[in-house]
Amino acid sequence: MTLLIRPVAETPHVPTIAAWLHAQWWAAGGYSLAQTESFLRQATGPAAPCALVAERDGLPLGTATFDTDDLPARPDLSPWLASVLVAPEARRQGIATALVAAVEELAIAQGVRRLWLFTPDQAPFYAARGWVRSGAEEYRGSPVVLMHRDFP
Ligand SMILES: CC(C)(COP(=O)(O)OP(=O)(O)OC[C@H]1O[C@@H](n2cnc3c(N)ncnc32)[C@H](O)[C@@H]1OP(=O)(O)O)[C@@H](O)C(=O)NCCC(=O)NCCS
């Protein structure tokens, strides 16, 4: 079956994706699981915020968000590609690549000229997909790479 990518709020997968995101990032940020779910339910797009889920045969396999803000150190930058996460058993099948492309398409459709992201350790993945390193920042006390992608 083909991969289907759509806003998670339109699917039955909000609790699953909320649990993944909460375990991966949101809990460390001091947010409850209920707050994570609430964000996903209102991140419907097409303008940011829009939280996407990738599913195959009705199973959620990954997620990514087109967001208004992401890195507290850089409130001057917007919008962002954020929260790219693929289930461990579904990795290396091109799912993150498809999710990144879907967020880029949302941004382009909104007339965005420059999209931002930050990553602690996945800069080569994004660089291989057209993203450019913009500099170094800090997130929760750890170094991260700031990157951007321009659209004509
Ligand atoms: C980073 C992450 C999102 C990548 O997800 P993924 O779905 O495995 O990514 P993809 O499959 O699109 O690409 C990963 C690699 O698999 C390769 N690949 C893609 N399809 C493939 C296939 N069918 N067979 C073999 N390899 C494949 C890609 O070429 C890529 O390699 P490259 O980086 O050398 O180009 C995932 O590992 C993850 O969720 N990590 C934890 C959270 C995280 O770090 N998120 C990013 C925060 S910035």
TrEMBL record:
GO terms for molecular function: acyltransferase activity, transferring groups other than amino-acyl groups. Residues 3-152 form the N-acetyltransferase domain. It comes from the Bacteria. Pfam families: Acetyltransf_1 (PF00583). InterPro entries: Acyl_CoA_acyltransferase, Bact_Acetyltransf, GNAT_dom. Keywords: Acyltransferase, Transferase. This is Acetyltransferase (GNAT) domain-containing protein. It comes from Falsiroseomonas stagni DSM 19981.
